[in-house]
Structures are given as structure tokens and as C-alpha cells.
Amino acid sequence: MSGDDLEAALTTRTQNAPSELLSRSFFFLCAALSIVTTIGLIALLATEAAKFFTFSAPLVGVDGATAGIVEFLTGTNWDPTNGSFGVLALVSATLMVMIGSSIIALPLGLGTATYLSEYASPRLRSVLKPALEILAGIPTVVYGFFAVIYITPALGTVLPGLSKFNMLSACVVVGIMIIPMVASISEDAMSAVPDELRQAGYGMGATKLEVSTGVVVPAALSGIFSSFILALSRAIGETMAVTIAAGSTARFLNIIDPGAYTESALPMTAAMVKLVKGDVTGGGLAYRSVFAIGATLFVITLVMNIVSDVIAHRFKEEY
Amino acid sequence: MAADTSDVTAGFGQVSRTAGRVFRALLLAATLFGIVFVTILLLYVANDAIQPLTADPGWHLTFFLTLVVPTAGVGAFVYRRSQAAFQTGMLALGFVAVALLFSGGAAMLFIDIVRPLTWLAVVVALAVPAAIAVGVTAYDQRLPFLARFGVTTAAFYLSLFGLPGPLGTVASWLSQLGLPIPLGATLGSVRLVPSVVDVVSGVPVAPAPWLMLVATVGGPIGVVAGHAVARDRGRRARVAASSAFLAVVAVAGVVGPAVGVTPVPAVVVAAVGVVPPAAYAADVAVNAPRERVGLAVPATVIVGSLVGAGIVSVVGLAGPQSWVDWAFLTSAHSTNAESAGFYPSIGGSILLMLSVAVLAFPVGVGAAIYLEEYAPDNWLTRVIDVNISNLAGVPSVVYGLLGFGLFVTHLNRPAGTVLIGGATLGLLILPIIIISAREAIRSVPEAQRAASDGMGATKWQTVRNVVLPRSFSGILTGTILALGRAIGETAPLIMIGAPTIKFSLPTQVSETVTAMPLQVYAWSSLYATPDFYTKVVPAGVVVLVTVLLAMNSVAIVLRNKYQSHD
User: Fold this and answer.
1) In a domain, A71, yes or no
2) Which residue is closest to B547 within chain A, CA to CA?
């Protein structure tokens, strides 16, 4: 028996010992559960949403009221009790939350990341980073309450026409909420920029400001963009803060009109909560529309997460 | 040409520092903006909930003199003598606060959710098969693994569930679905062999509940604490220390009724809230003489609070009219803001957290171990990898839909129960646990694995003896943070149909449950009156945020300690 055979025989015996097989298969099952979850999620959303649309409902054996997929995707009027399901009314509100919160979170998050990565002393970092982490740990329902009880009255003194529930304060709290996400992922990307690049910049006579904005930020751009997209996808999926703060009237708003932000609207997630919390009874068309909104939401966030992943890996600077 | 050169050299090497300074200040402002903003909001809400200004000025003065002044003095003294000692003191202080907070939760568990006899039965039912497993191994070292494994598994199953147990329920489900299983329909309801749990919890004569808790809760905690304190001082010292801690717990059960606390909560608070910080203090005092002086800080705070409370009650100075009071913490919801309470939601959150931990922790750590230690570099691994990071980005409300659709619509389970809530939140935090556990496992030095392999250890032996112990605190940190996320979530619970208002605590996993964030949402949406907005909701927010901050700070302290030791 040659040496190789011996080694193979020895390792095979230990690798296939019952305890090894058992532990390995247990760990594999745990990891495979994530695949099962995803498949289950997609299958569930697909079948339940299929019960909602006219073209697919007969396929899954639903008779009763249904809605057209074209009206769903292009309609601008959302009124489930009267049978109009135009999801664009909800999407417009969700987009407003995304735009409004990103105006706050992206610059502040990028500034935080730059400060933590380039300027802060190790001692200050060791205080600021846990503080940001704690900021991220406050439940979203609390942020929603803050928006209604403190931020809206405060903004109301500046903007007299502000309604009690409005998009503006929802945007503010969602923006604050996603700062830590932008900051931590961008900071990781900036810290990964090798020191040689900075030293080269200094060697060319650049100031710290020029090195930070001209060397570090461009070198970490793929990570920064992927953090932006992840944060935006988080803002889109954010539920409780907008449910409490944004109001419950679905309306199609012009997302680039600043005046629209003083009004109340119904983002997708808030609409799902509102439907489940009972203005409609179980089993009906309005109830099934929850899954249609959920599927739309899932597709949007999934696409954004994949895009973020692609940006982070494809466009990564290789040093 | 000459003139050009002099122009260049005139400004050479001179840079205005203004732009750099302004930029730096802007960045610092951006960093502080969110932190300061939220801190101010939290102060506002704490002010609304606790109303410190309604207290008698004499009350403030008393506590200023007995608590603030001595603490500041002692703290400054300790800090100047040794910063390490000061840190130890602050850690001990935080430990006291967190342990007392969690002991309140544990006391609640034993008063209203788990009967002490049932608890004793579960502990016995776990101890019996564990003893059998140890005995089998000791009887014959060379017993084949599968035989040992089979005996152990069967012993645990019999002891916890009896026959046919949950397998019978599964069989009856499957037979309902049309699979040919003999006796399928009856297996779900009959009981052939009773489990140890049933036997013990059915005994007609049982010791007093608090005595059972002294043994089952105080015993293990006392042993762990005693071993930690006297770890270098031999067996006799360890036994003595353990017995001392156990005695503290037992004494609490006797003394409790004398000061107006029923024995059960007294025992639990002593075991969970008093013994661990006391053990930490004793550990510092015995094993770290240089940091001993730091213990003066928590001692001053505790003595100062007690003295202050004594003076205030003797002189009769009114404290603040806080909405976070005993009645709020121990009563249920009411349509009247003054008498509305948080009790069922606190208990619900504790139960949800426990079930999430039981369901998600082993699976999450197992998946992380597979991906870091076992997974070959092939397409399946990459799919799992990408899939986990995508699952982490799925909105929580969609997980709620998954929980509802899967468990309620398709499996016909009742909506909004502890089990479904735990499973849904467990799926939600699974990716977070996996990602953080992978990071912790990755930080174990490769050389240690190689050393273990070199000594002939198998993969599983390396994982069990090297990787898991070395990465345990990192895994624990990530899990605590993830559990914090789980108990702060509201949307998935709404989606699975958890009731927003409940008046009692669930005593079984198949009962409906409410949770703290859900209750806050109900109060701020369904009962959106100014009365609720200014009294009850701030109180609920303060309790919820306190619990989460406590959990997160435990996790962060744990991580910092572990990182600095590496």
C-alpha cells in the first residue's frame, strides 16, 4: 500500500465516522435552511399574489373578485374598500420616504464614515461607534412615536400648513434611522483602503482634506454606493415609523414636489399593516392584496440588494 | 520665465488650513447629528414619562446629597488612583443594574408563566437523561458512537415527551395529509408511556414553590458563581463559595416575607439579580487586588440610594409622579390612561425572546460553522452565501407575511401564538446571527485549527474543542444584538395576527401573545388621545428602550472585553 492510499484510508475512516457525518449533516441542514426559507418565501408570495390577479387566479383555483395586474401596476388610486387597487399611489409614498430620508441619511452617513475612518482618534472612535450602534438598536416603533409627538409639532412651527400625520417627519425619522447603516458599511470600505494610497497622496503634497475627498472616497466608492443602496432598500422596507407617522390616506403624490411632503400619504408597508389591522375581513380581495403589495416590496428590495452586491463586488478597486 | 518661477515659489509649501478645519468640523457635526438628535428625543420622552420636576425640591436635594455628591467624590478619587479600577467599578455598577432588570423579568416568568413544579419537572427531566448519557460513556469508553448517540437521544426524548410524544403528533398530521401510517390518527392523542416531566409535575406532595426554585435556580447559579470566584483556590474553597451563594438565595426566601415580598420573587431576584453581581464583586476583591478600590463606586451608589430612599420616606418628601411606576409595570392594559399597564406585553416579549433564542441560536451557529469550517468552494456554497445576505435585506414586514402564510394559512396553526411569533422572528434574525457568528468564527486564528488537526483531531473535534470555545463570546455578542432586534420588531407580529391588547400572560407556547413594541403601537394608534400620548406611551417607550439599551450595552461590553483580551 502506497503512502497516498494509506493517508486516504486513514482520513476517510475518520471523515466518515458516524459522529463526523452526523455533525456535518446537521451543520449542512442549518445552512440549507436559508435556501428553504427563500424558496418558501418566493413560493408563498407568488401563490398568494396569484390568487389576487385576474389572469392567474383561475390557475390556483380562486373564484371570486380579482384585480387586473395592469391596473394594479399602473393605477394611481388605492381604495381597497371600493375595489380600486392602483399600487402606484402607495409606491409614490414609498419613493417619497426613500428620497426624503436619503437627503438626510446619505450626506450625514458619508460624513460620519469619513470622520470615523480618517479623522477620529481611536479613543473617540471607541465611544462614537457603540453610540451609533445603540442608535441603530432603537426600535422603529419608538421612532414613529417620536415623529408624531415631537418632530411634527416642532416642524409645524416652521411650516404652518403641516398636517398632523405627514411625510416630512416620517422622512426625518427614517433618515436618522438609516444613518448608522450608511456609516458603518461606508466606514468599512474606507478603512479597507490601504494606507499606501494615503501616504502617496501626502507625498504629493496633498492636505488631509484632499486625501480624504480625492483619494479615500474615490477608492472606496463601490462600498459607499453599495451602502447607499442597502440603506435605501432599508428605507423602502421600513414599516412601523411610517405607519405611525405618515398617515393612512392613500394618495398619489408628485414625488419631486417639496410641497407634497407636508401632506399625509400611505406607503406600501403602512398599507399592508392597515389592511391586516382590520379595515377588511379575512379572505377577501382586499386581504389578498396584502400579498400582492408584499410581493412588489420583496421584488423591489431584492433587486436593490442584488444591485448593491454587484456594485460592491464588480466595481471593487483591487489594490 | 524668471517672473513665473518666483510666483510659484512664493506660494510653495503654504496651504490654507481653513478649508481643512471647516471640513473636519462639518464631519464631526455630521457624526454627532444623529446621536445628539436621538439623545434629545430620548431625554424628552424620559421627561414625559418620569416627570422629575413634579418631585419635591427636598427630594432632589436629599438624593443630591446622599447619592450624587458622594458618588462624584468617590468616582473622582478612584479615577485618579487607577483608571482600570474605575472601569471595573463602572462595570460592576452596570452589572448590578442589568442583573436587577433581568431578575425582574425572571421573577415574572416564575410567578405567572411557568409553575415552579413544572420547572422542577423540566430540570429533573433534563438531568435524568444527562446522567444516563454520562453513565453510558463511563460504563464503556469503546461503545460505538451510534449506540451512545441512540441511547442518549432516546433517553432525552422519553424523559421530556414520553411516548409517542411530538412524533405521534407529526404522524397524525401526516396521516391527515393522506399518508398511510398505521394508527396515524390516534397517535396524536394517546399517551402510552408518560414522560418524566409528567411524572414529576403530577406528584401529589411537592415542596414549597420557593424551595424548588432555591434548588433549581439558585443551585446552578450558585455553583457557577462559586467556581468563578474560587477558581484558583482548590476544591474546598469552591464548594464553600458555592454553598455561600446558595445560602444567600435560600435566606432571601426566608427573609423576603418579613419585608413584604412573597418568597418566590424574593428567591428569583436573589438568584438572578443579587448573586451574579455579588460574585463579580467577590471575584474582583479576591482575584484582582489592584482593582479592588473600584468597587467603592457601586457600593457608594447602592448605599447612597438606600440612605436617600430611607430619609425621603421618613421625612415624607414626595418623589416624582412617574408614569413608569409599580402599577404600570404590573397591571394590564386599560382604556383609561391612568390605570393602563404594561405587564402582559413585558411578559410576552420575554417569552418571544426565549423562543426566538431557542429556535434561532442553534440553527444560526450551525449554519455559520458549516459555511466557515466545512463548506467546499462550490456553487452551492456560493448560492447559500449570496442567499443569506439577501435574506438579511428582506423587509421585516415580508417575514411577517411568510410567518402568516406558512404557519397560519398553510399549516392551519392558530394565529398570533408564542410559537409562531418566535418562529417568524427567528427566521427574521437568522441571517443576522449567521453573519455575526461567521465573523466570530473567522477571527479564530488558523494556527490553532492547524495545531488541533496536527494532533490528530477530527473536524468535529476541532470545531468542538477549539473553534467554538474561542469564538463563543463573539457569537454571544452577535446573538444578543440580534435578539434585541427581534424584541424591537413590531411589523412581523402584526402580520401574524398577534393581538395588540391582552390582559393576561400566555402560559403555553400555543397561546396568543402580545409584545412591548406592539403594545406601544396599539397605544399610539388605536388610543391616540392626548392622555395616552403624554402618559402611557412615553412610559412604554421608556421601558422598551431601557430593556434594549441594557441588552445592547451588555453585548458591546462583552465584545470590547473579548477583543481586548485577544
Assistant:
1) no
2) A138
